[in-house]
Amino acid sequence: MALEWVVLGYAAGAEAIMVVLLTLPGLDGLRKGLLAVTRNLLKPFLSVVPFCLFLLMDIYWKYETRPHCEADSCTPSEHLRHQKSIMKSQRNALLIAAALVFYWLLYSVTHLVSRIDQLNQRIERLKSRE
Questions:
Q1: How large is the C-alpha radius of gyration of the chain?
Q2: Among 68, 85, 107, 111, which has the minimal tally of Cβ within 10 Å of its Cβ?
Q3: What residue ranges are annotated as transmembrane (predicted)?
C-alpha cells in the first residue's frame, strides 16, 4: 500500500506547485502557458477524489479491524506497534485532506485566473474602441 501513498503525495505536491505558480505575482508571461497546462490537467487530477475516498475507506477498515490494545492486555512491543499504526493512519488522513484541499484550490484559482484574463481582454477591447 506504500505506492498509493507515494502517488497521492506526488499528486498533492504537483497541485501545490501549480497553485503557487499561478498565484505568484510577476509571472505574467509564464502564466498563460501554465494556465493552459493546468486547465488540461484538471480533469486527470479529478481522479484524485475517488482515489482519496478509496484510501480513506482503507484507513477506516484498518481502524475497525485492528486489534485493540487495552491497558494490561498487550506487551510493550504490541502497544508500540498499535501506537505506530495510529500515527500512520493520522498521517495518511492528513495527506488525503491536503490532496483534496489542493485540488479544490487549484480548481478555484484556475477558474479565477482565467476569468481575470477574460476580463482584461474585454477591457483592452473596450479601450481600443475609444
A1: 22
A2: 68
A3: 6-24, 45-63, 93-113
